[in-house]
Amino acid sequence: MSQANLQRVWPEMTEDLSPEQMALAALRAEIDAVDDELLRLFQKRLSIAARVGHAKDAPHGPHTKLRPDREQRVMTRMLSGAEPENVDAVRGLWREIVGWGLARQGQLQVHVWAPTDPTRHFDGARQRFGMAAAIRMVRDPQAALRFAAEGLGVAVLAVNTDDPWWLGLRREWSSLSVFEGFGGEVPTSLAVGKIDPAALPQGRRVVVTAGGDAGDGGGARRWGINTHHGWTLALTDAQLTPGEAEGCVGAIG
How confident is the model at residue 61 (pLDDT cuts 50, 70, 90)? Predict the structure, then answer.
């Protein structure tokens, strides 16, 4: 960048700057220009997100407006185009961008229940849903499930506990679907909400079944998460349909 252009950006520039100072000033001017463009595009994206929200307000059934499948496709596309050293930064940035876009359609309410190590579960929810979401800790998993079942928001509940709340996903909370897992390959908490089954992410299915986690005999592998009185909460590679007899209660990407 020429000194004349630099002086247009920063009129206080003087001609007695060293070459090193000039080089640094030029880089900062480039960053300022990029920031201006990022701001313009981000605000444009928020405006479009608000219009998407209005389109979603058309009759669409009893489910929330969350589309985990769409978010998964966007994230996959962004990460595929990211430089390897930027993948983590891009993932975090896009979670925030998507979260603020969703907020233009109504602030997302998230109830988190985790009697052990609550900070870790809260942080997992924050990283997934972004700073725009209203996230609060609650003391009763059944109240969190009721909150989600009424369509008021979503619930994130720990599964590495003695409370088998997940059995309710086949019983009184059958309107809810698991759509996200936190804590690693075998999750320690799950996100549930009134998600359209067609909008679940591509990935392992979450099942609640009688018996162990040895699999179904069809070659599909299972990963046990928790057990209670002969019932098992597990992940499976089998492509099951939520709500069917196989005990599928959702999916995680």
Answer: low
Rounded CA separation 177/199 (Å):
10
82's tokens: 């990211």
Token representation of residue 5: 């252009």
- The contacts found for 128-132 with CB under 8 angstroms, 24 or more apart, are 128/95, 128/180, 128/182, 128/191, 129/95, 129/99, 130/95, 130/96, 130/98, 130/99, 130/100, 130/102, 131/96, 131/99, 131/100, 132/96, 132/99, 132/100, 132/102, 132/103, 132/107, 132/108
What is the crossing angle of helices 68-81 and 87-103, to 10°?
Answer: 150
CB distance 200 to 181 below 8 Å: no
Q: Which amino acid is at 145?
A: L
Element (H, E) at 178: strand 177-182
pTM: 0.87
